[in-house]
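Quick one from the shared queue. A colleague (R.T.) flagged Insertion element IS402-like domain-containing protein as missing a structural entry in our internal table.

Convert sequence to structure tokens.
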Amino acid sequence: MASVAVAGRADLTDAQWARLEPLLPCGKKAGRPSKWTKRQLIDGIRWRCRVGSPWRDVPAEYGSWQAVYGLFRRWQRAGSWAAIVTSLQVMADAAGVIDWQVSVDSTSVATVSSSP
């Protein structure tokens, strides 16, 4: 696996990318290969979500804003992001790094009464 120069301080590290890459959907589109790597585009998506800027303001080192938004939207419509998060949670739970806590208060508890 070739290493990509990390553009920003909050971009994915090589170790994080190595864990994430196998979970990504495979591209089925024939034709010209993408000008930008999946890692660049995902870092662009992460940058945009972290900063909260408009898509058009995504820095050019992540790819064109249209490519970054296009990947985000395609995967959102296909349910890929939810599948990735679920897979990461399963991996983290298996490694013991997630502490699942459930809090219940009276506003979320339904009472059932039996009538005579």
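Helices lie at 14-20, 38-51, 65-78, 80-95.
The mean pLDDT is 86.
Added to the table.
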